[in-house]
Predict the 3D structure of the following.
Amino acid sequence: MCEFDMNACDPVDVAQQLDATGVARVANALQWDWVIDSRAEIDRWLAEYGEQDHFVLAPQDGHLESIHAFMASDSVRAFLDNVVRRRFPDRAHEMAGTAVRIVAGPHADGDAWWFHYDASVVTMVVPLFIPEAEPGRSGELVGYFNKRPFRRSVLVNIFDKIVHQSATFRRRILDSLGRAGGPTVVDMNVGDVYLFWGYRSLHANMPIASGQRRVTLLIHYGQPHAPSGALAAAKRLHWALRGRTDAADQPAAAGAY
């Protein structure tokens, strides 16, 4: 089973970097044997289910054993817990959701440019396949990192989402691409791991070229707000707007909103 390389980074340094720059890259954090095994699992998945977009909310149920072993490992959980405790030291934390996101096959932009806030304190992105294409067609991570603070009020949090995740606001973001004050674009490499304050960061991915693959493992950890009916309703609306009404009823979907 792959273990996260705890010698690659210090949780305190990562939390400080997240506060300062919005995104932390942990270079060469993954064992390459694990990357090879995980990519082979994705190859088998796509051979069985089709070279198209997939959102796998339960990797352990999809015969993605290596990927599940990584996200369930004690070292990954301990690392994320230590990062989150730098900002929320007085409460217990747990995994808020995991998923394998596959963008593949001939398609339009899919849900590229779907800017959103996560429900989790921190989000970890583990690239498994990144297209080799021109800038802007490689599925780059893009966003306004640390755009807002951690909110105390659930209702203010929901209001943020309604405004910033709207089609109108998305058009404003797209108009600002490449300009001063526009969103930050993060190139990602397989073998590295990327973290950001998911709750604070309005983020999306850029589109990929037709026939290419973009596959990432997403791990969400820590919840700033206690579960509530208002949050549950907001999650259902979010997934309905993205065309994934079935995902809203899955526990792992919580971290993806």
In short: The radius of gyration is 17 Å. Residues 244-257 have pLDDT under 50 and may be disordered. The CA atoms of residues 8 and 47 lie 34 Å apart.
